[in-house]
Amino acid sequence: MTDKKKLLLLFDRPQEPSFMVKGDKYVFDVPNNSLPEKYKPIGVQLFNKFGEDASERIPVKEISPPNLDDILELGRHENFSLFVPKHRRISGKLIRIFLAAKDVDDLLATAVYVRDRVNPYLFNYTFSVALLHRSDTQNLDLPSFIHTFPDKYIDSQVFAIAREEANIVPEGNR
């Protein structure tokens, strides 16, 4: 997998931390200083637990964390809309942070740091805009919003039924 394509893994399961398995068993090796505060004390255990099943470990370099103070005013579980002036302002700031990364490796490190802290819908939008506007990432085929956030388009009862079927019916009989 090329370095640029590894960026697309950050769209996979956006409400889970970056260090969890993504795609076809890829795991980001997140530096301890990039972990959210609640995971820092148990970082080694987390990497051992989630790295066991990895087919490939993707190294993430250490960076100076960007200033996210204004951006964090939008909570992780709040709705995000470009029609809200404050949301437009913070999305512009986050896009500039992504565009300022000097290369793909810095962009990956910045995105991993940001992804685990900011609103997932805000991250998806701003990271998509940045990838489309950067000269080194323009040709990436970005995933559709419906693939990233199916819960926004499918009735929640469908997920409950699917979970029930998955737990009851053996895999070969589904």
Automatic annotation (TrEMBL):
Ranges where the Hemocyanin N-terminal domain occurs: 24-139
GO molecular function, one term: oxidoreductase activity
Classification via InterPro entries: Hemocyanin/hexamerin, Hemocyanin_N, Hemocyanin_N_sf
Cofactor(s) recorded in Swiss-Prot or TrEMBL: Cu(2+)
Organism superkingdom: Eukaryota
Name listed for the protein in its UniProt record: Hemocyanin N domain containing protein
Keywords of this entry: Copper, Metal-binding, Oxidoreductase
Family: Belongs to the tyrosinase family.
